[in-house]
Amino acid sequence: MFANNQNVLLTSTCTENTKVVWRAFHDSITLIVMSSEKNASDLSLHKLLENVFGAMVLVIGLEELTNIKNVERLKKDLRSCYKLIDSFLMENENMGDLTQCVDCVITNDLAILQECLDSFTQASESNFGCLMAGGKVLAATEKWWRLAAQEVMLLCWLVASLPPHSSRDYPVYLPQGSPTVPHRLLTFQLVPGVDVCVLCGPSPTLQKVETELVERFWKPVLDPIKSCLRVQMRSFPASVPLHHGIQGLLLVNRDFNKSLYTVQAHPVEAMQAPELQLTLEQRRSALRTFYTLAISRYFTSDSSDGKTSIDHQYEETFPNGFTHSAHQCYTVSSSHKCYGMKTDLYLLFLLFNADVPTFSMRAIANKTLQLFSKDFPF
Q1: Of the candidates 339, 294, 291, the residue with the CA atom closest to the CA atom of residue 318
Q2: pLDDT digit string, tens, across residues 294-325
Q3: Exposed/middle/buried for 110, CB within 10 Å: 0-12, 13-18, 19+?
Q4: Which of 101, 338, 344, 377: disulfide with 259, CB 3.0–4.6 Å?
């Protein structure tokens, strides 16, 4: 408040062991986050604030947040956001909170599932449909992909944060597309862990879709749906041949704002030397830290093609004398190595064993990118 009175923009500060970041939204709500994590960055904490405010808008609408008439009522309404907000604060197996892209799964039965989803969504009087497992998208309609990246991510995280239920009729506000007028989010559990979601208007009724459409469209494909659960953690089938030295992978499709993320890159890791392996928690931390470093320092926003990964204010300025932007970067430590690559369509981040030769990382990254752009298109 002192800085604002002096016309000074101050967005963060640090104590001996804590980083504090804050941001005001619509001159109405100020959110403050405090983190004692050693690797906490301004980028990740600002993204957290954006996600928390987006979650608030998604559940209760922008009007309630910008035109506050009763503070006590607002506090009560905000309780419905707590589980979604908590999911952003806890360690998660997904990466969408940081990338602002929806986490996806590559499945061998995509064509069958996509056809069923398109038909089911159309029969439900909607153009917006999605099939997801554990907060990761298996298939989605064309119009679903046209929603804003943060909206798609928030919808997936919302469904994953709710207690399992056979069906739901949940009012949601789209933070960018419809922040003041609610839509209906219909969800149906096909098998434990897999939900189909439809974004629609006043019709049809939940009962009609559940009794007349769900079994009709999805019962014939229950086996392919169940098989998706086997690849959910890895995010792609075991038939995808990754280099044995890769421990973690993050691939971002910049056109569709979707990502492929795993820290369990190999189906049978027991075959590998355990002394060379990081724990799953360490892998997640290492990959998130490297992504933050690369995005904020090297893979900066593109002004020429309109693709902006993050706000310019969170990017670090290249040292004077560098007029170009990097397209590849890497880090080396005693426990692991990381390699990042940027192309017009993709961002690729790989986490390697420490014994992988540094000179070979570029070739492995190129081969991995070719794998997911041609052999298993993503």
Answers
A1: 294
A2: 998 888 765 434 444 444 555 555 544 566 77
A3: middle
A4: 101
* pLDDT tens track for 163-216: 999 999 999 999 999 999 999 999 999 999 999 999 999 999 999 999 999 999
Class of residue 107 by CB neighbours under 10 A (exposed 0-12, middle 13-18, buried 19+): buried
246-375 shares the fold of 102-231: yes
Architecture of domain 102-231: 2-Layer Sandwich (3.30)
Residue 93: both structure tokens together: 């197996």
pTM of the model: 0.88
Q: Lowest-confidence range among 18-22, 37-41, 49-53, 237-241?
A: 37-41
Write b or e for each residue in 76-87: b if 16 or more Cβ atoms lie within 10 A of its Cβ, otherwise e.
ebbeebebbbeb
Burial of 285 (0-12, 13-18, 19+ CB in 10 A): middle
| 3-class secondary structure, 111 | helix
Measured between alpha carbons, how far is 331 from 15 in angstroms, rounded to an integer?
A: 27
Q: Is 124 helix (H, G, I), strand (E, B) or coil?
A: coil
| Average pLDDT of the chain to the nearest whole number | 88
Please check whether residue 261 is in contact with residue 249, taking contact to mean a CB–CB distance below 8 angstroms: yes
Assign 249 to helix, strand or coil: strand
CA–CA distance from 185 to each of 29, 58, 126, 197 (Å)?
26, 11, 11, 7
Q: Whose CA is closest to 179, among 84, 61, 64, 77?
A: 61
CATH class of 246-375: alpha beta
d(CA 90, CA 40): 14
Dihedrals φ, ψ of 19, to 5°? -105, 135
Contact 294, 275 (CB under 8 A): no
Domain ranges of the chain: 2-91, 102-231, 246-375
Tokens, residue 268: 């049978």
What is the amino acid identity at position 6? Answer: Q
The pair of three-digit structure tokens given for residue 127, joined into one six-digit string: 């153009």
- List the end-to-end C-alpha distance of the chain, in Å, as a whole number: 46
SS3 206: helix
